[in-house]
Amino acid sequence: MDAKTQKYDRQLRLWGSGGQQALESAHILLINASAVGCEILKNLVLPGIGQFTVVDQGTVTQSDIGSNFFLDADSLGKSRAERAAELLGELNEDVSGHWVAKDILSLLTENPSFLSQFSMVIASDITRQTAEKVSSLCWTNLNAIPFVWVKTVGLLGTARVILPEHVIVETHPDNVADIRIDSPFPELSNYAKSFDFNTQDTLEFGHIPYVAILLKYMDEWKQEHDGKIPGTYAEKNQLKANIRSGMRSGDDENFDEAINSVLRSCQPTVVPNAIKAIFSDPKCETLTAESSSFWILARAVRDFVNDHGKSGGLLPLSGTIPDMKAQTDSYVTLQSIYKTKAKKDVQEVSNLVYIILESLGLAPGSIASEEIETFCKYSAFLKVIRYRSLEEEYTLPKTKQIASWLSEEDSAFAQYVLLRASDSFFDDHGRYPGEGNDWEEDVDHLHANVATLLQSWGIDTEVISKDQTHEICRFGKGAIHNIASFMGGVASQEVIKLITHQYIPMDNTFIFDGARSVTAVFAV
Amino acid sequence: MVDAQTITDNERWAGIYKLLDRNSLIHPEFEPQEEIKEFIQSCKILVIGAGGLGCEILKNLALSGFCDIHVIDMDTIDVSNLNRQFLFRRADVGKPKAVTAAAFINKRVQGVTVTPHYCKIQDKDEDFYSEFALVICGLDSIEARRWMNATLVGMRDEDNPDSLKPLIDGGTEGFKGQARVILPGITSCYECSMDMLSKPTGFPLCTIANTPRLPEHCIEWAHILEWPNKHGERKMDTDDPKDIQWLYETALARAKQYNIQGVTYSLTQGVVKNIIPAIAATNAIIAASCCNEALKIATTCAKNLNNYMMYSGNDSVYTYTFEHQRKDDCPVCSTSATKLDFKGDKTLEELMDYLKEKPDVQLKKPSFAVGGKPLYMQAPKQLEEAMRPNLQKSLSELFSSGDELTITDSTLPFSLQVIVTFV
């Protein structure tokens, strides 16, 4: 094993070489080397992102070194960007770090397309005004750039993910087994029928795979019930009883496995609604030469599903089956029957992919065969997330939803409201609530900002108490390392999901209340 | 080089001091006092483990203002640690984790002293543990956690407030983790929640020997059956790449024989070393959560977690915070005996095997006594040999239904009191 594989072994087991390659091709921008910003970068440099750039015009102060591990006593008075980049760079010799000691808005004025070189933008400790500007540039970039905006205020932390669309094939569901007891394909039925249920050999009987057992009893049931599978709870119990009656000894594990799988197997294999929604999405309906491989593949699978002769109206077979009590050769044969059918489905889908590519004027090799194979394997678990922009969040509030969130007891959404109000306070006063020594004087002002916001949503201003407002002023926009580190973990993990296109990122605002030790996610 | 004295605490800890200097209407019971700041600076705090969680915990505690931190870890640094144990560099591979971690923190953060202990937690006694105000665990083994938990619970004396050592425990695996606060004798303890643990995956021996189907079966065959066959007394070293290579090739050959796909070097390593995937992000979240609780407990600036937070990050970001209840018959933190129904005609050995497997008991090498009279002792050797025949005797031959058994195990600093009723 080479040195890099050894080093990254523990993470490769989560996202494989494909995910690692995506990370190593990434160039991440961090705006502001605050405590939380550096904690986020730490968790990205360690797993080996390709490059990072830190943009920060500040010089290191004492309160910086009290909350930020990547600034030390030697850094006092020096460029925050430079020192943070240096100390973060030390974490991983395979990562290239850069820094610019400038304010982001000046940089963008000098060079409006500064952001285009980055695959991800992360910002902390920026004003709402700056966030709106950066967010808009990221959103409208030729290839939209995901933007993650993070804040910590005393014991509170929040992270917002902003990008137009994120697609995921490798969602890593708990169970990819696709057994099709309710709708067996011909090769499967035939193989199941080849087992001798009358055999006197107890070893042989005890090793009949549960799939064959289920298929036999399901087949008998269908014959007695007009071709239908058990629907009601009573019917499913009856099927279980039927199988139980076929047991010879109380210890027949294979029969137990069959009985335990009845409920799952009686759920008809269908195209999930979420996948149907993807199929009817305009981006699946209308393809162009600029369409991403995700949408081209979705269309190919849709066409496959619609061709009942080839697909039986179902998604491509995943080809995965669970382990089960069986002799080696029967299991291996059964497994290869599923794998062969899965391969056949992939071949059909591939042909459809080539037809589509040709119609778009694209080369047949534009989409690699591994990509087609993976797409087919996970076709039941695909996910498309469409995020709301900051502009939509601010100008088109989901007032009904917000009222519902706030009506819950001890709602964490109250913190969202308080943090939004704090941004308004900043617009009014040029500083955050509680920053100065006369912190309690800010309570009334901040509470007025809270009331304005709630009123704009048509919500009773009583839902947020003055005590809660008082607590935000108590925090005084203080940077506390533990909170920065917690948010650093959460935000970096979402960034990794976005870059690797594996696992499912949150949609779209995460709140951590370190006082009550609770978290919540809101799609604002 | 800046003179350490020109760094003032008021500026450095500005964020935290806002919490400590200002009153709260949400937590009206909190009283700002200078003594709290002095306490953080002077108290001794113990970190167990200097690995994935430990490195994060040390950093977090140092940047919370704690000045006297101790860390115990018996391991040395491995290349596969470098993707998340950020206090270590490639040049440190082979060195003790505790020592290297302590040196890094001491250099990076002014005014903190981290004292390393390169040893097992079992090498330290109650006198050692009683010096600390708080213990934070970043361990990777159930056995070590049980030992630490039982030791701290055992130390607690209701009449002596100083003997109460809050134990904050964190654990991670891939994108999942949990953080909990244990107040010995007050809240549920680690032993109370043993039944929450999932059964460790093991494959039946007959599958491994006769009907392999998965690549894992082939690997376990090479590991458990073929290795002793070919290497006799010599134990396998799972850290030696040569031994893993042998296992991989042997497993692959068997797989080829049975037409089984999927044996890789990586899977081989994963199975025999029981490798758990790990990344920096999850460790950061759980460690930060633990240290956030530590700061709240040490300062009372807000209410601490009561008492368990579970975290999952593979699908969105999700936490579940709840109060885990104490178990009435917890062998560690309660005084009442556990009740067990068992067939009187089963042998003592069968009872022993049952207790080894049971998730909330999980004993390794139990010894049994009833009413002060030993039934079977694992040590010393002569006693074990003399008592071995008892293993084959039925329970009803050895004691009466309703008797209370005292069960001990060398890995655990407590005894299990079990009232056995014959059914």
TrEMBL record, chain A:
Its biological purpose: Regulatory subunit of the dimeric UBA3-ULA1 E1 enzyme.
Source superkingdom: Eukaryota
Name by which UniProt lists this protein: NEDD8-activating enzyme E1 regulatory subunit
UniProtKB keywords: Ubl conjugation pathway
Domain THIF-type NAD/FAD binding fold: 8-502
Lineage: Eukaryota, Fungi, Fungi incertae sedis, Mucoromycota, Mortierellomycotina
Pathway where it operates: Protein modification; protein neddylation
UniProt gene name: NAE1
A Pfam family assignment: ThiF
Family: Belongs to the ubiquitin-activating E1 family. ULA1 subfamily.
InterPro entries (UniProt xref): APP-BP1, ThiF/MoeB/HesA, ThiF_NAD_FAD-bd, Ubiquitin-activating_enz
TrEMBL record, chain B:
Gene3D superfamilies tied to this protein: NAD(P)-binding Rossmann-like Domain, Ubiquitin activating enzymes (Uba3). Chain: B, domain 2, Ubiquitin-like 2 activating enzyme e1b. Chain: B, domain 3
Keyword annotations: ATP-binding, Ligase, Nucleotide-binding, Ubl conjugation pathway
EC number: 6.2.1.64
InterPro entries: E2-binding, ThiF/MoeB/HesA, ThiF_NAD_FAD-bd, Ub_act_enz_dom_a_sf, Uba3_N, Ubiquitin-activating_enz, UBQ-activ_enz_E1_Cys_AS
Entry keyword annotation includes ATP-binding: yes
Gene Ontology biological process terms, A to Z: protein neddylation
Pfam family, one: E2_bind
Signal peptide: none
Pathway where this protein functions: Protein modification; protein neddylation
Similarity-based family: Belongs to the ubiquitin-activating E1 family. UBA3 subfamily.
Protein name: NEDD8-activating enzyme E1 catalytic subunit
Species annotation: Linnemannia gamsii
High-level lineage: Eukaryota, Fungi, Fungi incertae sedis, Mucoromycota, Mortierellomycotina
